[in-house]
Design brief:
binds nicotinamide-adenine-dinucleotide, binds 2'deoxy-thymidine-5'-diphospho-alpha-D-glucose, two-stranded parallel sheet, 13 helices, about 15% strand, 13 strands, alpha/beta, Rossmann fold, about 350 residues
């Protein structure tokens, strides 16, 4: 099979390309990525020479470029990871989120209609459900939870989901959607909580915790997300949404203290900074549908996953030091300078 993976030079798409090229030598993985600030060819370096992998630089919102790729590659399956993914950036500059996350998704769907496809899979997020209160630990997001977004990022992802569902119903396009909780693991861009805290701690820099650090996220090791998507594209029912998460809720402060403890650094590095506007309080996924229907359960407990992740950042300093020594320094100053 020919499988197009968009956004494969990013964090989760990159891990997915590694996973799929290793697991299915008989399939061809064609990675399409625009290489924005978040795309990194170093992430793909370990698989670039594999005979079942190809990389094409293209923008998913560029209709001509995408149609040409579909004509040439005749994909059986498309997995759409490509997105602007950082909530804080969406608050300062929403427009590019609308272009990539909504228009880009519509171009991918149109290409699937025009050229025919066995499955289109949209990689969505639990953020489309909004947030849950901290004082109701009995509540979880199910696939029936209404869409209720908070940030321009989540609004753009929810818009894309609605388009996918419209194409599935109106044009009978065989689509699936997955909505996953927060991922962590290797190749995670250091603007996000866990890699940012690891990089700052290793450099003995302050660790900027938003508000009181009491917000809760439901952390999943990235390979478990890749395994779930692979199951959905092969065995999931077209037209269905699948939540992915591992009942692994932690406050941000717990996560930051775990990172500091593992690195043997002092908690004095923690600095409380101005909160994110509209900051979602708690995300928590009910993954019973994907468990019952497809037999998926997360394989990596947080204690094991965070150790593997920290070890990866220690062993691959060049990967993240190259990032934080470039344009990232301007981003960091703009985002945290006067916070
Ligand atoms: P990322 O920011 O690390 O990577 C995004 C990739 O998409 C980059 O390689 C970038 O170059 C590429 N890209 C951006 N705009 C593009 C365009 N117009 N055309 C082609 N490529 C483009 O993101 P991530 O954290 O790996 O997230 C991947 C997907 O998973 C996103 O759709 C995100 O919404 C979703 N998701 C992420 C998480 C998480 O915790 N990171 C959780 C649930 C869902
Ligand atoms: O839930 C899935 C989502 O998880 C994905 O859809 C997004 O693409 C992904 O970026 C992530 O969104 P979050 O906003 O939850 O992730 P982030 O790493 O930006 O922040 C995690 C929590 O940590 C959040 O409550 C904000 C807080 N935070 C973040 C940063 C970068 C801090 O306290 N300090 C920081 O410097």
């Amino acid at each position: 099979m020919n499988i197009i993976v968009t956004g494969g030079a990013g964090f989760i798409g990159g891990n997915f390309c590694h996973y799929m090229t290793g697991k299915y030598p008989e399939d061809t993985i064609i990675c399409i990525d625009k290489l924005t600030y978040a795309g990194n060819m170093e992430t793909l370096a370990p698989i670039m020479e594999k005979p079942n992998f190809r990389f094409i630089r293209a923008d998913i919102a560029d209709r001509d470029a995408i149609y040409k790729i579909f004509e040439e590659e005749a994909p059986d399956i498309v997995v759409n990871f490509a997105a602007e993914s950082h909530v804080d950036r969406s608050i300062t500059d929403p427009e590019v989120f609308l272009r990539t996350n909504i228009i880009g998704t519509s171009v991918m769907l149109d290409a699937c209609r025009k050229y025919g496809i066995k499955r289109y899979h949209q990689v969505s997020t639990d953020e489309v459900y909004g947030d849950l209160p901290l004082d109701r630990p009995d509540l979880f997001f199910t696939e029936e939870t209404p869409i209720h977004t908070s940030s321009p990022y989540s609004a753009s992802k929810a818009s894309a989901d609605l388009l996918v569902q419209a194409y599935a119903r109106t044009y009978k396009l065989p689509c699936t959607i997955s909505r996953c909780s927060n991922n962590y693991g290797p190749y995670h861009f250091p603007e996000k909580l866990i890699p940012l805290m690891i990089a700052n701690a290793l450099n003995d820099k302050e660790l900027p915790v938003y508000g009181k650090g009491e917000n809760v996220r439901d952390w999943l090791y990235v390979e478990d997300h890749c395994i779930a998507i692979d199951l959905i594209i092969r065995k999931g029912t077209p037209g269905e949404v699948y939540n992915i998460g591992g009942h692994n809720e932690k406050t941000n402060l717990e996560v930051v203290k775990t990172v500091l403890a593992q690195l043997g650094k002092s908690e004095d590095l923690i600095t409380y900074v101005t909160d994110r506007p509209g900051h979602d309080m708690r995300y928590a996924i009910d993954p019973s549908k994907i468990h019952k229907e497809l037999g998926w359960l997360p394989a990596t407990p947080f204690e094991q996953g965070i150790k593997k992740t920290i070890d990866w950042y220690l062993e691959n300093r060049e990967w993240w030091e190259n990032i934080i020594s470039g344009e990232y320094a301007n981003y960091y100053e703009k985002m945290y300078g006067n916070r």
